[in-house]
Design a protein that fits this description.
The protein is α+β, with helices and mostly antiparallel strands. It has four helices and five strands; from the N terminus they run αββββααβα.
């Protein structure tokens, strides 16, 4: 199975949990880079999102993550973001607030208190 197929499968899995408006911006691009795995990015526009293989030339924020499995675990909440950061498996360059909000963007099954964050 190629990366494009994996990204489409993950979109289908995350679709029911996506919280449009949670980032408090209309558009946002999260670039994911990995030590050995292929890069991809998450493009959020309004009430929809897409995962795309490759590198976005104008990403809002770039996240360096050890591997794809860690990335999916961070997005669906199976992996704690602080623990991954402390173990060197997760690092963000750019808007750090967005990197933290991303960890809750697809976690609608777990109650979250959302505060209005101004940056």
């Amino acid at each position: 199975m190629g990366l494009t197929d994996v990204l489409q499968r993950q979109k289908n899995a995350f679709k029911a949990h996506f919280q449009p408006g949670f980032l408090q911006r209309d558009t946002c691009v999260f670039q994911f880079r990995f030590e050995a795995d292929e890069p991809f990015y998450l493009d959020i526009v309004g009430d929809d999102f897409e995962f795309h293989a490759g590198v976005h030339i104008n990403a809002t924020i770039t996240l360096d993550i050890s591997d794809h499995e860690t990335c999916w675990g961070l997005l669906d909440g199976r992996i704690d973001g602080m623990k991954a950061f402390m173990e060197g498996d997760f690092r963000a360059d750019g808007n750090i607030v967005l990197s933290q909000l991303l960890l809750y963007l697809f976690k609608s099954n777990n109650p979250t208190i959302a505060y209005e964050v101004q940056y």
